[in-house]
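Q: What would this complex look like in 3D?
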Amino acid sequence: MFSYLKRKLGLLSLANKMNNDSDSEPEGPVHSELSNKLKNNIAIISDIVGVSEDFVIREFKFGLHKQIDAALLFFDGLVKSEEINHGIIRPLMYESHLLTTVSPSCFEDIRALKETLLAIGEVTEANTIEELMEALFSGNAILLLDGNATVLMIDVRGWASRGVEESKTEQSVRGPHESFTENIRFNTALLRRRIQDPDLLIEYLVLGKKSRTAVCIAYLKTVAHPELVEELKRRLNRIDIDAVLESGYIEQLIEDDPFSPFATVGNSERPDRIAARVLEGRVAILVDTTPYVLTVPMLFLEGFQAPEDYYSRPYYSSIVRLLRFVAFFITLLSPALYVALTTYHVELIPTSLFITMVAAEEGTPFPAVLEAIGMGLVFEILREGGARLPTIIGPALSIVGALIIGDLAVSAGLVSAPMIIVVALTAVSSFLVIGHTDAITLMRLILVLLAGVLGAFGIAIGLLGMLIHLTSLRSFGVPYLTPWAPSVKTDLKDSMIRAPLWKMILRPRLITEFDSQREAFRLKPHPPENP
Amino acid sequence: MDLERGRISSSQLSYLTIGFMIASAVIIFPGSGAENNAWLAVIIGLLEGLAFLYIYFALAKLFPQLTLVEINDAVFGKYLGKLISCFYLLLALWITAQLLRMFGEFFNIIMPETPIQAFLISLLFITVWVVRNGLEPIARCSQILVPLTMVLIVLDFLLILNKIDLSNLLPFMDIAFNQFFMASQSIAALPCGEMVFFLMFFHAVNNQAQIKPAILRGYMIAGLILLFLAFRAITVLGPLALITTYPSLSVARVINIADIITRLDIIVAVNFLCVGFIKGILMMYALVLGTAQLVNLGSYRPLVLPLAALIFVVSLLLYDSYIYDLIDAALLFPVYSLPITVLLPLLTLILARLKNSGKETANAG
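A: Here is my prediction, written as structure tokens for the whole assembly.
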């Protein structure tokens, strides 16, 4: 008890100290100017970088009489060596000789170099060590020239990265197959290719003191709610962390209710899905080094939507949408209902079914609750094992999982056969509602326990509790259960069913109120009558 | 004093009204005292209740943005007003405890071996949770739970269609007038008079002009459901409806579609849980907010848990058995509740009008 208090006090004083520290810090970083001596500059920089093996300092001389001292600094692997060779070194050392008409001293000014010789698209000037270092670490080559206090930052970024490939986690039968990659430039391009409008703003910021991760927020200027964008920026600017290695870091630091099992920030690696959400007025957060892009606000409904719903015709989409809701309740409730029925409410089961079920349950040594929890645990183990398993060993897992655990557990009389069916149904259904898998897993366990203690009444209490939680939840100011509670009648067109595309005239009302009409009225196709 | 910043929309107010009105009727037999003329008793009671509603509307219009407790303070002065508020709050405590006990007894029928305290505590637990979250989540809950109940009632009706026997409605008015009068008064008191506690929520409605139409819309739908429930109990069960404790359960047990769809008790249980829960949290919220305003607290949240404990104890001490509750609801409740839910507001309204006109003449003179 006392040690706990002491620890708590220690944490408090630490927090105070840190606050005081940040107060005493001067405003903004100190900018150290570069000198105009090449040797000094190189000494300062190599002092900062230290003895890194991948840091390259290429010193050379050029000019008509080889009279100009220069140095090129870059990190091997972050830059394209071809561009270094052909765009920087070759023009300076070889092609400068061809320009015989100019005066020999004209290359001594670094700006002249930028304007005449360098064959690279993006070249910027820098005067301070800080600017220089940042550019260096993000994959620029730095050109220093003796006698100049200004250096050139040359964009020759080109590190190894995966190309645009098919999405592994969100596949579709119909629709684009490409997915985001780890490279934020590709990702913004994938988004930009889908929304080719000046309205699409992509704002850039850097998060993580050590990782210096590039983060972009993308939204439609005239559609997204300005308050939403402001609030998101406020929450992002709050983040003070050493590294942002994945968008999950950001998600966990900006979400509305960190204790809720339900996600209040959406994510996807499909550009078409992200583009659709941005078009609805949401804001996307792209993070460098991860293909998973976040969107806010997220609604409960989004867990049930798939891009394909909008690509196929409305009847089938609506059936699939309804199916997902059914699957949601099956995967959430079936183990709990099975436990409640076999333990407490046997009178509610029709007689023939009752005899089969209870006969199966009688032969097993454990109560239904323990069976349900145990089999649920086995399923989660199999799922987690399958997710991390090298693909070569995959078949072994399914043999062990399906045959040994499933079949033999029943033959050995450890678990009843109906329970295996229930667990299997639960497992299969859970794959239909990918968006809420983690929340469902937790809720299912709670409901099974409640069913074991209080039967159907326990399940009802659990569901009511879940409902209360969901109704209290908000994501960036938007109630989580929109469009059901609060009910927004115009938004019901895209909830349990998916209305025809020509009917979905307005954007979701609670997400944005600006530029709300997204298509013309009377888009319903009218083929001309045959003469 | 702004204890609650939550805002509810007019459609949410309608749903709340429906849930509040039909809560106990989904399991008991509304107007049971009038036997097979219960439907008529329901109509009379509802018309009487409509008159009550207009008293409440008039009060809400005179004192917009004020709750019942604050209205009492404004009209009767600081001390007498608080005394009068106590009457309302005691009644609210009584109703909440009664409802909770009803829950416990009902689920005890389904699961007889579980002690009633287990039901009461778990229900109170989630009630406390939602009340602490404020009025907005309550209103949003009603938008899910009330439509669900309405769908289930319609489903129930479709499944029971083949068992309806209209001859059960006869003989018409073959009872003493006294009996009929008491039955209609029980309807007027039990869901309609209790609507006085909605004065605790009116201040949170975002469009004050919409209060009246929204409540009336909800009242109409709830009235139709009440009427239908009474009608169903009489026509399906006949004289049996008066003997069974839970006519709705009995009705659900009658359902038999080709020997496959049977024993739909669970529908009734779900219905009761949904709308009873809405009524329970509304009453609890009114009680807690009213108590906080009575003693001038800055926030009502610290009161939720202690009052829940009080409700738990009161609900256990209320009766020896559920039959007392039924008798109380049918015969005694109108006698002790109507003076509080109708006469007191009426008195408040008259006094407020007099005060206002006095002020106006003073201003004019």
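A: To summarize the key features: Confidence is low (pLDDT under 50) at residues 22-29 of chain A. The longest strand of chain A covers residues 55-62.
Q: Very helpful, thank you.
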